[in-house]
Design brief:
Blueprint lengths: L6 H13 L6 H9 L20 E4 L2 E3 L2 H11 L6 E5 L5 H9 L2 E6 L2 H13 L5 E5 L12 E6 L8 H5 L1 E12 L4 E10 L2 E10 L13
The structure holds S-adenosyl-L-homocysteine (SAH).
The site of S-adenosyl-L-homocysteine has 25 residues, from strand 2, helix 4 and strand 4.
Length: about 220
């Protein structure tokens, strides 16, 4: 683990915002202790990087609150050999956490500049198991399907059908579902070709998932 200038703040973030609030998965906790969250945002915001809220990353998008990243990642129940699809690369922070826990991460972002920034920092941190594509993530990434797990980090009006189809049986889909201004964080476990088990982790607020199977622009 790198002992950078924010090491202490990062450990404090994990202790007070992640562990104390009930995140139990040791691998998720370790990943959050390790990944230097501040490097994924503009350095003017570094003093706030480990605080308990989302932050702007440009183009009206945000990096998710640390607790939400931990909660969503834990819900994916990732194993070392898993292939995971992420929709909404954003800052790339969640992507890095996934890369610590799975074998291969496929991440899709619709905004080219946002994707390029994420690629730059992920390369700098030497993540070799991340592929990023600039396209509409609501269509999934059929070339590499099926996936063991899928995470959507933007708010959807309903499950985008291609994502359900590209999920393995027993695979998990974590996605905020609801209206434009508030959603529920849903966890779907695919039980067969047409069915899922479902769990609601509670209220949340994400930016809109914009695409063919999401919101219109
Ligand atoms: N996990 C990211 C969250 C970024 S915000 C982080 O913590 O930094 C959500 C991102 O989803 C935005 O960057 C937005 O551009 C992207 N997005 C919205 N609709 C999308 C779509 N259809 N396909 C891919 N990315 C999309």
């Amino acid at each position: 683990m790198t002992i950078d200038e924010f090491y202490g703040k990062r450990q404090q973030m994990v202790d007070t915002q992640i562990v104390k609030r009930g995140i139990k998965d040791k691998r998720v906790i370790e990943a959050m202790r390790k990944v230097p969250r501040h490097l994924f945002i503009d350095n003017a915001l570094w003093p706030q990087a480990y605080e308990d809220h989302p932050l702007p990353i440009g183009e009206k998008q945000t990096i998710s609150q640390p607790y939400i990243v931990a909660l969503m990642t834990e819900a994916l129940e990732l194993e070392e050999n898993d292939k995971v699809l992420e929709i909404g690369t954003g800052s790339g922070y969640q992507t890095a956490i996934l890369a610590e826990l799975a074998e291969q991460v496929y991440s899709i972002e619709r905004l080219p500049n946002i994707a390029k920034n994420a690629r730059k920092i992920l390369d700098k941190l030497n993540y070799k198991n991340v592929m990023i594509s600039i396209r509409d993530g609501t269509e999934g990434w059929s070339e590499f399907a099926p996936f063991d797990a899928i995470i959507v980090t933007a708010a959807a009006p309903h499950i985008p059908r291609p994502l359900f189809e590209q999920l393995k049986i027993k695979g998990r889909l974590v996605i905020p579902i609801g209206g434009e201004f508030s959603q529920d964080l849903m966890v779907y476990t695919k039980t067969d070709k047409e069915a899922t088990d479902v769990e609601n982790l509670g209220g949340c607020r994400f930016v809109k998932l914009i695409g063919a199977h999401g919101w219109k622009e």
